[in-house]
Amino acid sequence: MKSLYLLLHIFTIAFPLIRSFEPRIRYAKKWPTLFPAIVITAAFFITWDIIFTQNGVWGFNEKYLVGVFLFGLPLEEWLFFVSVPFASVFIYECVRYFMPQIKTGRNLQVFTVALAILIMVVATLNTQKSYTFWNFTFSGSFLIFIAFLNPGWLGKFWVAYALHLIPFLFINGILTGSFLQEPIVWYNDAENLNIRIFTIPIEDSIYALLLLLMNVTFYEGLNKYYGLRT
Prior knowledge:
Order of helices and strands: HHEEEHHHHEEEH
Helix content: 55-70%
Number of strands: 6
Distance between the termini: 47 Å
Structural class: mainly alpha
Oligomer: single chain
């Protein structure tokens, strides 16, 4: 049980790591731009994570941890911001390869703006709930920024996000207590809407949206900078 959170990381990256060297997706060849994007995004999320952990917005059950901590976060939580983006961007790359017909049109831009506004409204109505307010504020703001950039990859991103919710429900479900006597990651419900998808706070789906969107944004930006995308 002490290694459960660590084992979830291994499970998360196992398939995309094995498939990184197959000749179609060629995911391994994209690592030089993928890992810098992961590091840039992780710097933001880890800072946020440290502050929220210190303030008791969420925390970690040591029954499921190997016991190594850095700046108040367990090793496994640091790895979260590597393993999850690694697997999620793999899904995005699969969408790019197998669904090249997906385009980014005006309707999708309108949808993205509308969703961003809705998220920002929820944030404004919940200023006293730290997780809801900051999560929705960060996510809504970044969505608006991306919507007005309207990059050609936005349509493929939304499909990848929808697909990645399938493993998200399984992995995050275990982290938040599904199939376990106690959760690996606990939440102070005074700091969120206290609405759950099974055991998962509804905020986590928006958190996952921002995590994937930031990684894809920096990843595609680096690919374009180095001439790897047209």
